[in-house]
UniProtKB/TrEMBL annotation:
The Peptidase M48 domain, residue ranges: 188-358
UniProt protein name: Peptidase family M48-domain-containing protein
Gene Ontology cellular component annotations, sorted alphabetically: mitochondrial inner membrane
Lineage summary: Eukaryota, Fungi, Dikarya, Ascomycota, Pezizomycotina
Keyword annotations from UniProtKB, A to Z: Hydrolase, Metal-binding, Metalloprotease, Protease, Zinc
């Protein structure tokens, strides 16, 4: 069906006018009549080719002589448009530019206002606060060595199951760079682990993987999966310094920091969704909560791992000053480090200062461990063959 006929039927339904009259009032029909009339003005004595329906302007339409019926219909349409516009202005309807995503903000603000207008609003807020606070307090636990209390809802079994996938991915990623177990570097690192693991208090199957990579890094995944990159040997170039590195990484496993991070992420996500109701979008709320909650918690974990690792290496009869030497060397080799408040780790300088505070306690444990070892392992006289 042609578009002019559709427009005519729609206008007839809206204005109560016959479709024949509306078709006669189209710009094409009026211009045709004007051009064929003998009394047409010079303005309307123009070429038919110039006045097609596609290029007919409102000015030409207004200057064209209209039939009385068409003029009456056009006036009625104009009055209807003006009255509709006046009603919208009286009701406060104005066009307002909205940027992308602003409607979602108004939607959540409206939800918050409706919730706040409920007569039981304060009772509901109090009930939610009591439930969340009780859940948090119920899941508090104490870290064994440091005595710090923290929130944790992830069991050690779940922690190991989650970390097993990361272990397989790392093995697959570095499968062509894994050093064989017969290499002297692997022997030296394994010997240090054999002295650290018994004093860690964690009974599980430990597995060492040495990766030939310039990356100065080491990690211990939940479940006893130890990864050491050969680039760390440039920093930990003695047994005492390597014991400080491995003791720090094993301490993360002892304190179950992976489970703590997973538990903290649950509260961060809940907080981010809660901030949606006050107009903060999800991306900015997560970034804000990570800066206020996540990063400080990660730095506390690193400091706690430094303390646990220092005491562990002292009980394994490694000099505690080796940890201080290792972080001094790390600070010398670091070319750039971000500001501490946006980093997951404390600065090397701050870690060095903390270790100096803990050294007297670590030296005492070191002396006790050496005396105990001498008492249980009597030295035999050398036999000359």
């Amino acid at each position: 069906m042609p578009s002019t006929m559709l427009a005519g039927r729609l206008a007839a339904r809206l204005f109560g006018t016959s479709s024949a009259l509306l078709r006669s009032c189209t710009p094409q029909r009026v211009l045709t009549d004007a051009l064929t009339r003998s009394d047409a003005t010079p303005t309307t004595r123009l070429s038919r080719r110039r006045f097609s329906l596609a290029n007919t302007s409102r000015t030409t339409w207004a200057r064209t002589p209209l039939q009385p019926q068409c003029r009456q219909l056009w006036s009625r349409q104009q009055r209807g448009r003006r009255s509709a516009g006046q009603q919208q202005q009286s009701r406060g309807y104005r066009y307002r530019y909205q940027r992308f995503g602003s409607g979602e903000k108004w939607y959540h603000e409206g939800m918050l206002r409706r919730w706040a207008s409920r007569p039981t609003f304060y009772m509901e807020i109090g009930g939610v606060g009591v439930a969340v606070g009780g859940f948090y307090v119920y899941n508090l636990e104490e870290v064994g060595v440091s005595g710090r209390r923290r929130f944790n809802i992830v069991s050690p079994e779940m922690e190991k199951e989650i970390a097993s996938g990361a272990f397989d991915e790392l093995r697959q990623q570095y499968k062509n760079q894994i050093v064989t177990s017969h290499h002297p570097v692997v022997w030296k690192i394994q010997r240090i682990l054999d002295r650290l693991i018994p004093v860690s208090g964690v009974e599980q199957d430990w597995e060492l993987t040495v990766v030939n990579s310039p990356e100065a890094n080491a990690m211990v995944l939940p479940g006893g999966k130890v990864f050491v990159f050969t680039g760390i040997l440039n920093v930990a170039d003695t047994e005492d310094r390597m014991a400080a590195v491995l003791g720090h990484e094993i301490a993360h496993n002892v304190a179950h920091h992976t489970a703590e991070n997973l538990s903290r992420s649950v509260f961060i996500m809940l907080g981010a969704f809660s901030l949606l109701f006050v107009g903060v979008d999800l991306l900015h709320s997560r970034w804000l909560l990570q800066l206020v909650v996540g990063l400080p918690g990660s730095r506390r974990q690193e400091s706690e791992a430094d303390y646990i690792g220092l005491m562990m290496m002292a009980r394994a009869r490694y000099r505690p000053t080796g940890a201080l030497e290792m972080w001094q060397r790390m600070q010398q080799l670091q070319k750039y480090s971000p500001p501490q408040f946006i980093s997951t780790h404390p600065s090397s300088h701050n870690r060095e200062e903390k270790i100096r505070e803990w050294l007297p306690e670590a030296e005492q444990k070191y002396q006790e461990a050496v005396e105990e070892y001498k008492a249980n392992h009597l030295s035999l006289p050398r036999i000359t063959w």
